[in-house]
């Protein structure tokens, strides 16, 4: 009995030390595939760690998402302050600052914040800022993010302009996340050609709103319009298989004289059909 116990302990010890067991990283999954036969490997299978993230996390990367349907202004300003200035504010803190230093009564009346409210709050925390009006060329020459008002889907909205590249305008939208518009489309929805800039010394500027590879993966508007309302089409064989899985199986005698199983027991599927009155 003692020999068995000692043997088991030794097997466990050598097995645990021989195998390279590493802690599993957070947000990671493993997949296994056959190794390339051209690769001189001692293992038949190749195992690799792949880190995954929710799509929503990347969609709102670097953006403070608006908590209320009327708070796009405070969320856009917080996004700009955090991503460009380097502040670490929450939307709630920005809203409290806008209410304190902005035109309180008008804010309550219109249930939104103005560029003047933003300027007063930014001045109160020690930075120079201002609203300007210019052409599209003026916006892209700034080489820095800016808050721009747009009129989109029937609503007036604040977004943060991030960059312009290859005919597309990339913005941080507090409601929709990182999105982009065709240049001409952006010019149509840009409200009064207005932009709001915060002046920050070059050495203090942050690049949390800089373009990344994920931002460049977009679907053009024409493709969206073409396929957004198209119903998915499935093959008849596929639909029959789905229907068979939901039906009741029964054993019957094959009565089809042209069948290879004529006069033999076969399995059939009895489906239920409902007819509207």
UniProtKB/TrEMBL annotation:
<dbReference type="InterPro" id="IPR005074">
    <property type="entry name" value="Peptidase_C39"/>
</dbReference>
<dbReference type="GO" id="GO:0016020">
    <property type="term" value="C:membrane"/>
</dbReference>
<dbReference type="GO" id="GO:0005524">
    <property type="term" value="F:ATP binding"/>
</dbReference>
<protein>
    <submittedName>
        <fullName>Peptidase</fullName>
    </submittedName>
</protein>
<dbReference type="Pfam" id="PF03412">
    <property type="entry name" value="Peptidase_C39"/>
</dbReference>
<dbReference type="GO" id="GO:0006508">
    <property type="term" value="P:proteolysis"/>
</dbReference>
<feature type="domain" description="Peptidase C39">
    <location>
        <begin position="66"/>
        <end position="197"/>
    </location>
</feature>
<dbReference type="GO" id="GO:0008233">
    <property type="term" value="F:peptidase activity"/>
</dbReference>
């Amino acid at each position: 009995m003692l020999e068995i116990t000692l043997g088991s302990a030794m097997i466990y010890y050598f097995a645990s030390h021989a195998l390279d067991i590493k802690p599993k990283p957070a947000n990671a999954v493993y997949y296994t595939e056959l190794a390339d036969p051209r690769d001189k490997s001692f293992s038949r299978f190749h195992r690799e760690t792949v880190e995954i993230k929710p799509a929503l996390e990347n969609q709102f990367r670097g953006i403070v998402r608006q908590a209320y349907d009327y708070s796009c202004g405070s969320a856009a300003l917080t996004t700009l302050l955090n991503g460009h200035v380097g502040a670490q504010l929450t939307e709630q803190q920005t809203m409290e600052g806008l209410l304190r230093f902005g035109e309180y009564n008008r804010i309550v009346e219109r249930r939104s914040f103005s560029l003047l409210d933003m300027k007063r709050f930014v001045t109160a925390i020690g930075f120079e800022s201002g609203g300007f009006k210019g052409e599209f060329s003026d916006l892209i020459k700034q080489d820095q993010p800016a808050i721009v008002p747009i009129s989109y889907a029937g609503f007036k909205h604040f977004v943060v302009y991030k960059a312009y590249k290859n005919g597309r305008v990339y913005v941080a939208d507090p409601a929709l996340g990182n999105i982009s518009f065709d240049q001409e489309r952006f010019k149509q929805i840009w409200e009064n050609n207005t932009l709001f800039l915060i002046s920050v010394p070059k050495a203090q500027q942050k690049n949390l709103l800089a373009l990344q590879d994920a931002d460049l993966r977009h679907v053009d508007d024409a493709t969206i319009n073409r396929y957004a309302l198209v119903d998915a089409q499935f093959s008849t064989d596929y639909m029959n298989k789905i229907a068979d899985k939901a039906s009741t199986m029964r054993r019957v005698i094959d009565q089809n004289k042209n069948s290879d199983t004529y006069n033999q027991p076969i399995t059939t599927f009895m489906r239920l059909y409902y007819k509207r009155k």
